[in-house]
Amino acid sequence: MAKNMQPVLKRCRTLGINPAVMGINKSSNRNPKSTGKKQSEYGRQLTEKQKVKFIYGMLEKQFRNYYKIATKMPGMTGENLLSLLESRLDNVIFRLGLANTRRESRQMVTHGHVLVNGKRLDIPSYRVKIGDVVTLKDDTKTSDRIKDIVDNNSTRIIPKWLEMNNETLTGKVVAMAQRDDIDFDIEEHLIVELYSK
After folding, report:
1. Which residues contact residue 83 at a Cβ distance below 8 angstroms, ignoring those fewer than 6 apart?
2. Are 99 and 105 in contact (CB under 8 A)?
3. Which among 173, 197, 193 is positioned nearest to 78, based on CA atoms?
4. Is the pLDDT confidence value at 35 over 80?
5. What's residue 81's pLDDT?
6. Best exposed site among 33, 52, 63, 156 by fewest CB in 10 Å?
7. At what angle do helices 8-15 and 41-56 cross, to 10 degrees?
8. Structure pTM?
9. Can you say how many angstroms the Cα of residue 141 is from the centroid of all Cα atoms in its chain?
């Protein structure tokens, strides 16, 4: 399986992403490169696509498949695409504060620590539905690592489309993510324009 091994802070600086979006509380000490060149329209579109792919941790083929699904859904394609990406199981674990980063949540899912509606799931790209209950295995809940993560993320704001019970470490999907639930700057219409060519 292919995976992205790029240094996170370096990639954040290149794409203009705040590392906090990735769940990282560090910042680079280097000055951002400013070439003074004006970016072309194609360059802006490509940068937006790369930004979203990097944030959700996926490669081109998988991202393009999400775009194809989004075009067949009713409504605006760009908003549908972001809603689909937000509904991935690894992203839901991150949003609930059960992992520090999306990479960590993906690893938790693949290692079988996550239950959806009481059944173990090890597919990070699984799309949750309204009413799904997401929790961790009993032995995982009691581990020191998870307790530290939950304590550190206690101030993280849970999106309104999710409900979280910190006592039982159980989350519930109460709605699908909307455009205003996205907490980072993205111009999704540029991605649609790129793929529409």
Report:
1. 176, 177, 178, 179
2. yes
3. 193
4. no
5. 93
6. 33
7. 150
8. 0.84
9. 22
